[in-house]
């Protein structure tokens, strides 16, 4: 391959680049669906020990599916209901939605209750079962109480079907009976603080994470809200749903890409034009970088089948590092003047570029070892982009830059670089060097002392404050569980799961009686275990053993003989099975709580409501086999903390590996080459301490990159100086040029809307800046004595 001419090399590499570009275009636009993943939860790692727990987390995250949950709020009851009706009609007329639920269709309560009548003698509340098993149970008194009950609100069982009220008592404890949302005027309505809330549910015509679906649905909602608000002043709309989070994440990422990508591109372009004073180097540098980014994006989608928003923003910042390789080649060309030979230039920069590439790949490879899908994808993106950009210098640029440069580097840049290099070099030798290091340590120690840490999950996912506030109000008003913490109950079969859930519910009932919990929602409350149903049936058996006496009591209470006979003929009834319950229409909103994951096991989800203290919730599950509290945010935060602690060890390991490479390459000069990135990391940590920035996993990951980038600069200076001895300061000018381009890209991450990328940006901004200024220490001291 080394015998290939530069034009042939360029032709082969161009064919490869065009092939990758075509593949990337098809992967991005030719498959009908966008590979851009706007689901922020998809970036999170698996943290739960039980596979059912991870499945439950995902199920709950998408419980509402591709729907908008809307609450129309107004102080006037009539206006709130009229506004909800109008909103429903507006949304129903728009093709963005597959279905709208505002006004409830006519339904017969008897049809809702009828399926339970065959199982009525197996469904008892704990209070009724306890009373029935007590000596001297007075069935006649229970019958009188039922006959004299006031008018029942909500779902009521006919007297002839439930003369003792046992089934009615059980139905009163069901989630649909306890919900604050009740049918009023054919609308699901709740009243709170003298205000009326009416629910409207809009089902999207597609996935919440599809860009086109998001845009169409949000535009339709905005139009409808504007019209309804105009016609009903004072109306407020609360909203919840995955589509809103996905859209906010997409909008934030687009803003970040524009800010980071466009600003860094413009800044780098101006800098290169000023440095090389010709548009040709600018075009060549951007072509090399574009090939790297295209290859990185194509490989990422090919390997992961999707690309996270975090990766896109990080990819926009990658411009500043990918352009380094072409910059070094361009500087070598400018420094060579009329003596320039393209392939000789490749041989001149190859050792430095390959060594720099190796250190960068090492840093990103360590990033890829993290268990976070997003970080692994970012590492893959960066490694492929670095490889493609570097090899474009070897295969493509010689053919494009065969002619010598007409102008040298900007004299202002070279003179400024020489002045900085001389100053830093003098401070790095002899007593001055010892004094300088002592002074740096003196300044850094208080900053190190101030360092803390923060492992909050919101560093990676930070939902919009206003959207979170609205969702919290909807949960509170509609009586929906908090969703952040839930109980996972698992077992060998459905019966064991239900029995274990009943044991948990007994403890939750105690919390509710003590005012520590409002309520909970679980399957066992709607479907008792077979053992519990047998106990219920056994509690009723003594009463029905004397049919004649029971029939006489019913008749004395006023029931007709045929009605009493019909009721007694339904004994003993049949138990309610899981298969039957899953087919009941009333179970539809709650089926997601039951999990049958095949080989991963069987389980159920129990949602507590009205308690945010995790310690209280966790205590309720202690000692119960097969029951655990799943707190995804806390588990992610714990994982953050654990790997943050490991990261410092990884950084030391990476430093040791880079040091070994440098010892192999530079021998006794290796410590000087390693000093700048090491000092840059130390000063960065001190600066973060002074800034009051608690250390996170992402700070440590950024320090990995500081090590790689800083080592690159030391390599560029050490390898390049012998070839530019006739132009003092020129090599360091190239290093500063690389550093400034990196600062223009990675540094702009500090402006990102994503906290994790902000931490990346701030750390890289400080680390690259410090390292670039300290790089002159990488050269032997004698070179500055004579300067």
From TrEMBL:
<dbReference type="Pfam" id="PF03176">
    <property type="entry name" value="MMPL"/>
</dbReference>
<feature type="transmembrane region" description="Helical">
    <location>
        <begin position="352"/>
        <end position="375"/>
    </location>
</feature>
<feature type="transmembrane region" description="Helical">
    <location>
        <begin position="647"/>
        <end position="666"/>
    </location>
</feature>
<keyword id="KW-0812">Transmembrane</keyword>
<feature type="domain" description="Membrane transport protein MMPL">
    <location>
        <begin position="193"/>
        <end position="403"/>
    </location>
</feature>
<feature type="transmembrane region" description="Helical">
    <location>
        <begin position="310"/>
        <end position="331"/>
    </location>
</feature>
<keyword id="KW-1003">Cell membrane</keyword>
<feature type="transmembrane region" description="Helical">
    <location>
        <begin position="673"/>
        <end position="691"/>
    </location>
</feature>
<dbReference type="InterPro" id="IPR050545">
    <property type="entry name" value="Mycobact_MmpL"/>
</dbReference>
<feature type="transmembrane region" description="Helical">
    <location>
        <begin position="757"/>
        <end position="778"/>
    </location>
</feature>
<protein>
    <submittedName>
        <fullName>MMPL family transporter</fullName>
    </submittedName>
</protein>
<dbReference type="InterPro" id="IPR004869">
    <property type="entry name" value="MMPL_dom"/>
</dbReference>
<keyword id="KW-1133">Transmembrane helix</keyword>
<feature type="transmembrane region" description="Helical">
    <location>
        <begin position="381"/>
        <end position="403"/>
    </location>
</feature>
<feature type="transmembrane region" description="Helical">
    <location>
        <begin position="257"/>
        <end position="276"/>
    </location>
</feature>
<feature type="transmembrane region" description="Helical">
    <location>
        <begin position="283"/>
        <end position="304"/>
    </location>
</feature>
<feature type="transmembrane region" description="Helical">
    <location>
        <begin position="729"/>
        <end position="751"/>
    </location>
</feature>
<feature type="transmembrane region" description="Helical">
    <location>
        <begin position="433"/>
        <end position="451"/>
    </location>
</feature>
<feature type="transmembrane region" description="Helical">
    <location>
        <begin position="697"/>
        <end position="717"/>
    </location>
</feature>
<keyword id="KW-0472">Membrane</keyword>
